[in-house]
Specification:
The chain is an all-alpha fold. About 65% of the residues lie in helices and about 0% in strands. It has one domain.
């Protein structure tokens, strides 16, 4: 029998993976405060990625 695959902890996700998760989360209806926090994180990470690859 094969052992069950373990999900990776969120702390170990790459930036691109986290951006994709945030994009999916922002497509769903969310309370305003939660949406605002997720959007702020999304904007921060996308700006970081743009600045990283722009140089």
């Amino acid at each position: 029998m094969m052992p069950a695959a373990k999900a990776r902890p969120v702390d170990h996700l790459g930036i691109r993976d986290r951006i994709e998760m945030l994009e999916r989360a922002l497509c769903r209806p969310l309370p305003y405060g939660e949406r605002k926090e997720l959007r702020a994180e999304y904007l921060l990470l996308t700006e970081l990625m743009e600045n990283t690859y722009a140089e």
